[in-house]
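Hi U.,

Before I forget, here's the chain from the pilot set. I'm dumping it here mostly so it's searchable later in email.
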Amino acid sequence: MSILDQLNGSALYLICGGIVAFIAVVCVVFLIRAWRAGKALGMDPVRMKRAVASSATFSILPSVGILLGVLALSGSLGTPWPWLRLSVIGALHYETQVADAAAEQLGIHLGSDQMTTQAFSTIALLMSVCIMWGMILSTLFNRKYLSRLQGRSPSGKSAGGFGDQAMAAMFIGMVSAYIGSYIGAFISGNGLFTFTGDWTPLMVVLVSAAAMAVFTYFSEKKGLSWLDNFSIAGSMLCGMLAAVIIGH
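Structure:
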């Protein structure tokens, strides 16, 4: 039995599927409680139905990006584990990047036949340990953080401004690190002037960035704020399409 057969075994489907089913039940329970709370507050049932329909509609396309992430990881990690990660607490950009970084440190590449049970255990553990701190820190400090976030500084600015800036700086640093690694791989392949290096990742980055810029332009300059819900999924689709075209 191959490693993928083991990772797609019935036992993992049962474990991961049970957890996902539990989360789905919790979501339904909260939906019912929120509906009842809205009626108790005297909210218009028609508007509540519109809000539910609107939320469901605008959740479809962003979920396509999540599905793409599951499909991208399933070739190396099987289907149950990525399905669990991206259904419960994981984020699309986080799961793919951490899995790729962990595989790189183990000397293997995702999507190849180099995966082993030991490598999968290490990757799965790293994916879990790195993301659990959000829950732990929220449990310990969320109330204090919210009270500070709701307050205002003497200048009138929200106290949460530093958090927004820190998050933006973190993502800029992370993206810069990945782009730098792509440039390094391209140059190490003697491709700086001869174009013999692997330039596919760089082209995918450019296409994805251009797609995100288009979404941002229409969202912020044209007042189409609903496009924010589709920007990540749309940029991923454009980047994957570019990779397929360039690869062939």
